[in-house]
Every structure is written in structure tokens, then in C-alpha cells.
Amino acid sequence: MGALEGLIFGLSVAVQPQNLMAALAGALAGTAIGVLPGLGPVAGVALVLPLTFAFDPTTGLIMMAGIFYGSMYGGSTTAILMNIPGESASVVTAIDGYKLTKKGRAGAVLAIVAVGSFVGATLAIVGVLVAAPVLASVALLFGPAEFFALTAGGLLVLSRISGGSFAAAGFSCLLGVALGTVGQEAVTGQNRYTFGVLELTEGIGLVPVVVGLYGIAEILNLVETSLRRPELVKVRFRELFPRRDEWARAVPPWLRGTGVGFFFGLIPGPAATLSSFASYRLEQAVSRHRAEIGHGAIEGAAGPETANNAAATSALVPLLSLGLPFTPIGALMISAMMVQGVQPGPLLVQQHPDIFWGLIASLYIGNVMLLVLNLPLVGVWVSLLRIPVWFFVPMLLIVASIGAYSVHNSMLDLWVLLGAGLVGYAFNKCRVPLAPLVVGLILGPEVEKHLREGLFLSQGDPFYFLEGPIAPAVWGVALLVAVVGALRRRGRPEPAVADG
Amino acid sequence: MTALTQRTGRAAIGLLGLLLAAGYTAAGLGLPLGSADMPGPGLFPLVVGPLLALVALGLLREGWAMRDDGTPLDLPAGEEARRVVLVLAALTLHFVAMPWIGHLISASLLATAVIRLLRGGWAASAVAGVALAVAAQFLFVRLLQVPLPRGELGYWLGM
């Protein structure tokens, strides 16, 4: 099936009523999650994961993807109107977006950012359509050496570019890998680190870890700091039309942001957050109006928001074609597939074309829905911030507990949730990134599997892992990123943590 | 805010990480290693454990060598710390009590306690807390068919 045929087939899957409803529900829930503080896109998707098991895999994944890109839209709304980024990918948007609000251009910048998000996601979908099937067919030729290089090398790159120090990100990553070894080992059935606890033989669950790290930790932060109610900003519908010069200024950052976002989505790391920061820097460097950036320039909001939507979309390329999640959200989507008996990887496009093409086509439909619904409803979204913290905190605690418990109906998962919440709270305080821990937890078992398969096939020859052109090339790139990153950072302050 | 700095926090995580890595490696030594061409379940933990110790040492070194510019750890103090500790305590008790009294009652108590802490007034908190727990129970158990613990009390009361 070619890209065009695939897209048409995907659209036929995506417009089925249950899938349209899932995309709409996901996009609306995602926007709410993006707007509200205390529940970012990762925790939001994790909470919905157990509920998606009631649907077929395609519908469940469409809903999860809807929450992710809906939260990208929602996060920018409060960043622009109130200088409160709803999620980390909107932090840089707040710089110029809020200054534009102060200048009375709130409606215009909201419209430009919404259209930019749509442009970024739509162009990135074209890239995904072309790249994902090609990469999937190439990946069919991959053996354990190539997959070992991609997974282990990917974790190395992730540890370098997640922000914080290399030791901090590496520690987070290896802690995740170590947690991934808990439970019954797949080849021999040997129990590892279960200490006689029967429930531990199934391993440490991804959902309680993610909801704890991102959800409980953020709730504790909310309890600690923000009992103040923010001042709400009103935007009238007629204010949502930018001037002609503002439209003209937005086009170049949209295109540059799409390119930056698409690239960051393909590499390991918290793509949405990193791409928005990279796009902002690019605008500071090349924009014709660079002198205004930081003081309320359209480019400073249009570029990053386009980039994070493009990145959220192109991150599907490694996820769908290789079965390798390089972001926490990707890890959750892989987990959803596996629970439903769908094997992610290069064969997904052949064995489950409905999931592969349906998910891609639903991104397009979901983005149209968000564009149409979000701007007229901006007042509704902002009014969500009226929900008082005293109501919000217990509601989130109850939902988080139910979400963690319901995956395996296990009380142990509730204690994992609590432990992960404490770890997340401590890591946030000490600027240790969380994303490597989550990705390490899901990729760690993959690294081990390919390592053992490779040693078995090569009869114990370690040089097997450097055979062929692909594995050495992947290792070369990973080591280059690690070494160049170390040299560039020498003497500089530690970069900010990017966990989106 | 307390006087603890980023430097102290980084060193503390490094130290805890080092202890964890030591324990993880030691426990992994008891697993079958296999051979080079037929690796056993003990091989991978034996690679991961020392690497974990290495990065934990890196964190300790950072804590040691980091220039102490006084960047605070931003730990809560006073009323803020009290709120965080009490919410954690309420959540812990919720998990302890759930198998005995069931999710509905346990969640009602959790929500009541947290609302009382953040808003004040026992009676209003109890009404809001019970309403919140009943709404969650209806949504998840009735509508979405998620099985939640009824607890021994739930069976006894027929809930």
C-alpha cells in the first residue's frame, strides 16, 4: 500500500463513528489537560490508558494521540493569556505570547498559534506518510545488532539531550532500566528482584510509574505552591482575527518551526519541549524581526508552537515503523498496543494497517477539530482555571489511584504510584529529568532482549554488534552526540530539564 | 524556604543511588550468568548495576564539585510543608484502608481530609468529599465497568 492509498484507507478508518468520537473526546480532554495546571500531557495520557482497553486498539490509540496534541493546543492558551504554561512545551511561548497579550493582541496571537499548530501538524503528517512506511520496510532487514544499537544508543542520546547534567539524566535512565529488570524474565522464566512478592513477577507497571512521576509529583507541587487563583483574561471572538502584517510575519516561523519540530520528533528525547526551545532560538537567530523577540514578537510564539505540534506528530515515525518509543507518551502508546495483543514494530504496517494508517489519518482529523473548536471556545477553556485547587487536588488523587489500580487490579501498583510520586517530586526539586526514567523502563527490556539474541546468534562474539553499515553508523551518531554535547557544555551552566 | 541547596540535593540523590546500585548488583549476583553464547538472566543486571553505580558516583561528584551559588532546593517549609506531608499521609492511609473498607468509603475519607486541609470546614468538606467519591465511583464502576476494591466492609454492607 502506497502513501496515498494508505492515507485514503486511514481516512476510511478514522471517520468511523467510534474513531471520530475518540478523536473528539481525546482532543477536548487533551485541551483541558493542557490548560489546567497539575496534570500535563504525559500524566493525562497515562490516566486514560486503562480506559482505552475497553475499546479496540485503533480507537484507544486515536484517543491517546488526541489527548497528546490537544494538550499542546491547550498548553499554549494559558501560556499566552496568563503567562501560565499548561505544559513544558509551552514555556517559551509564554515569553512573547504573554507580552503580546499585554499589548492587547491576545486574540491575534491565539489565532496565529492555533493556525501554526495546524500547519505544523499537517505538514508533519505528510512527512510521516512518506517516512514511516519506508523506515518500516528498511527496518525489516534489521537484526539484533541494529536494534541493540538503536535502543541502547537511543538511551545514550536521550541521557545527553534531556537537560540537566549528563550524570543526572543517565542516573534517571539507568534507574528506569534497572526497574525494567524486575519480574519474571522472558527467556528462562527466572524471577528477578521479586523478593518473594507474587505481584512483582509481572514487573513494575508503566502506568503507575508514569502517573506517579508526572501526576502525583505535580499534584504535590500544586498543594505546595498554588492556592492562589489566577486573574482570568477575557478574549472576544471578534478579537481573534490577526492583522494582515501579523499573518505575513507568521508564515516564515511556521515553516521553520515545522522543519525543526519534524527533525526533533525523529530523534530520542522529549521532542515537543526540545523542539519549541530550538525553534525559539532559531527565530532569535534568523528572523527578520529578531530584535523584537523577547519583547512581544509574533515570531516568538508562532515558531515554538508550530514546532511542538510538528514534533508531536513526527515522533510517530520511530514509534510506528520501529516499535521504539523515545518519549514517555510513545512508551504509553506502545504499552497500550502490547496490552491489546498488538506487536509494535516494522511489521505493524502490514499486520495492522488499520492501526498504522488510521492513527495517522486521525491526526489530521483531530487537528481540524482542534482548529475549529479551540478558538471559539477559548473563553470556556480559560474558565477551567476557575476550578478551585481544593476540588481539583482530591479529584486528581482519586483518578490517579483508579488509573494506577485498574491496569492489573493490583494493590501493589498503588504503592508503586506513591513511590514514583515521591521520586518525581524529589527529582523535580533536584533538576533530575523524568523522561529518561520512563523511556529506560520501557526500552530497558528491549536492550536486554537484543543483547542476548545477538550474543546467542554470534555465539558470544561481541564484535557482532558492530557488523554491517547500520549499527556502527547508529553508534557513531550516538557517541558523537554524547561527546560533542559534553565538550559544548564545558564551563557552561546546566541546561534546563525538558520533560515533555 | 529551608537553606538546603541544589548541591546538597544532588549529593543526596547520588548517595542514595550508590546504595541502591550496590544492593541491586549484590542481589543480581545470585542470578545465573549463563555463558557468552547462551547468556543467562544474571548478565544484564550485572551490566546495569555497575553502570548505575557509576552515574550515581557522577551525581555525588557533581554535588561535591558544584559551585555552591546558594541556589535553593526550593523545599517547602512551614505551612506549605505541612500541607504536602498531610496530603501524602492521607493518600497513604487511603491505600492502607482500601482493601478493608473499599474504594468508595476510602476515597470519600481521602477527599474529605484533603478538602478540609485546603479549604477548611469539616461539614462542607465532608459533603464535597463524599459527592466527589460517589461521582468517581459512578463514572468508573458503573459507566466504565472498572472493577475497584469493595473491601471487607463493602461485602459485609452489601455495597
Keywords:
heterodimer, A: 500 residues, two-stranded antiparallel ribbon, 1% strand, B: 159 residues, mainly alpha, 5 helices, transmembrane helix (chain A), transmembrane (chain A), DUF112 domain-containing protein (chain A), membrane (chain A), DUF112_TM (chain A)
Quick overview:
The complex is a heterodimer of chains A (500) and B (159). Chain A contains 21 helices and 2 strands.
Helical content of chain B, roughly?
over 70%
Distance between the termini of chain A: 33 Å
The number of helices of chain B is: 5
Instruction: Quickly count the helices of chain A.
Output: 21
Strand share of the residues of chain A?
under 5%
Helix content of chain A: over 70%
Order of helices and strands of chain A: HHHHHHHHEEHHHHHHHHHHHHH
Beta-strand segment tally of chain A:
2
Number of separate structural domains of chain B: 2
Residue stretches of chain A low in confidence (pLDDT < 50, at least 5 long) are none
Q: What is the CA–CA distance across the termini of chain B?
A: 46 Å
Unreliable spans of chain B: none
Structural class of chain B: mainly alpha
Largest interface: A-B, 63 and 69 residues
* SSE arrangement of chain B, N to C: HHHHH
Shape of chain B: flat
Average the pLDDT over all residues of chain B and give the rounded result.
88
Keywords (chain A): Membrane, Transmembrane, Transmembrane helix
Pfam families (chain A): TctA
Protein name (chain A): DUF112 domain-containing protein
Transmembrane segments (chain A): 20-49, 61-85, 106-132, 138-158, 165-183, 203-223, 253-272, 315-334, 355-375, 387-407, 463-487
